[in-house]
From TrEMBL:
UniProt cross-references to PANTHER family, sorted A to Z: MANNOSE, PHOSPHOLIPASE, LECTIN RECEPTOR RELATED
Protein species of origin: Pocillopora damicornis (Cauliflower coral)
Name under which the protein is recorded: C-type lectin domain-containing protein
Top-level taxon of origin: Eukaryota
Domain C-type lectin: from-to ranges: 62-180, 190-313
InterPro entries, per database record: C-type_lectin-like, C-type_lectin-like/link_sf, C-type_lectin/snaclec_domain, CTDL_fold
Length: 316
């Protein structure tokens, strides 16, 4: 997203020194500029346009599980992976009472897909001819729509229209999705935002895409109080690989570190000797190499190639 004359000058200077592998045409690079409803807008602003009035993405709790209702989809084979990274799985609706809860929640929400009936992918799959929930339980409540499922269906979605199940094929792109996280109720909030702290990892770009599908972005720390809240939270957590560092929304643009929200970096929480290296993204560390807690650091060449946990911030 090239948002200033200074940033354009920087990008212009850099591409003059480079070439692409395509030598048959003029060298060109794809940028994050898209036309939305007749208006050209940068990628990092799309989430502001796509946020629908009257919807919410904040997790809700039922018995011993938390639930997150996404607004958009991710690549069709990736939805359950996202739920797994968040510490759960695609929702398993195992009782009438739980179905009533989900029914109540989706009636208050909408997805970004306004061209069809709002529907969310759920954790119901056909294995060896039997419909099984992601939790491992067999389907024991019948909420199929009339004439559903058909013989080619292998997965299912729940529709806002009656909260009934529709069968979909393995290759169906689907729509939004619902994650269920057993255990502690997720309800990390500060002022007008709530936060998701993942336990497993993705690349920087997929991490940001996941946050976007939930209606938000990678976290931007704009006050000391906000940083202190998240630091307190990560001190009580571990990532699955015990690296205990999380991707945050701090990015270097035109040699300046700014948040993906567009706000400048106003609180300095860099670890000793940071920022360093050639990379333009940052982590938040549970404990840095010298024992500092909650500080920021940049990746080295090896760690940059790996997948890492991340923190999303979603407007209420």
């Amino acid at each position: 997203s090239i948002e200033t004359e200074e940033e354009w000058q920087f990008i212009n200077h850099e591409i003059q020194k480079r070439g692409t592998w395509n030598t048959s045409t003029t060298n060109a690079w794809l940028i994050g500029l898209e036309k939305k409803d007749g208006v050209w807008i940068w990628k990092n602003m799309l989430r502001l346009l796509m946020k629908l009035p009257g919807t919410e993405c904040q997790p809700t709790c039922f018995k011993n599980s938390s639930y997150i209702f996404s607004k958009g989809k991710i690549y069709r084979f990736y939805n359950n992976e996202v739920c797994s990274i968040l510490g759960g799985y695609l929702v398993s609706i195992e009782t009438e009472e739980e179905w009533q809860f989900i029914n109540h929640e989706i009636q208050k929400r909408a997805t970004w897909n306004t061209s069809t009936i709002n529907a969310w992918l759920i954790g119901l799959e056909k294995k060896d001819g039997v419909w099984i929930w992601k939790s491992g339980q067999q389907l024991n409540i019948s909420k199929w729509r009339d004439s559903e499922p058909n013989g080619n269906d292998e997965r299912a979605e729940i529709s806002m229209n009656g909260s009934l199940f529709n069968g979909i094929s393995r290759n169906d792109k689907g729509d939004a999705y619902i994650c269920e996280m057993p255990g502690e109720c997720l309800n990390i909030t500060f002022k007008n935002s709530w936060y998701i702290i993942s336990v497993d990892g993705e690349s920087w770009y997929w991490s940001r895409h996941t946050c976007s599908s939930l209606g938000g972005d990678l976290v931007s720390f704009e006050t000391q109080e906000e940083w202190r809240l998240i630091n307190d939270e990560i001190q009580r957590r571990n990532t699955t690989n015990y690296e205990n560092k999380w991707i945050i929304g701090l990015k270097k643009r035109a040699r300046n570190w700014t948040w993906v929200s567009g706000r400048p970096l106003t609180i300095s929480k860099w670890g000793q000797g940071e920022p360093s290296g050639e990379h333009d993204a940052a982590f938040m560390y549970k404990r840095f190499r010298n024992g500092e807690r909650g500080v920021f650091g940049t990746p080295n060449n090896e760690s940059w190639k790996k997948q890492h946990a991340y923190i999303c911030e979603i407007p209420k």
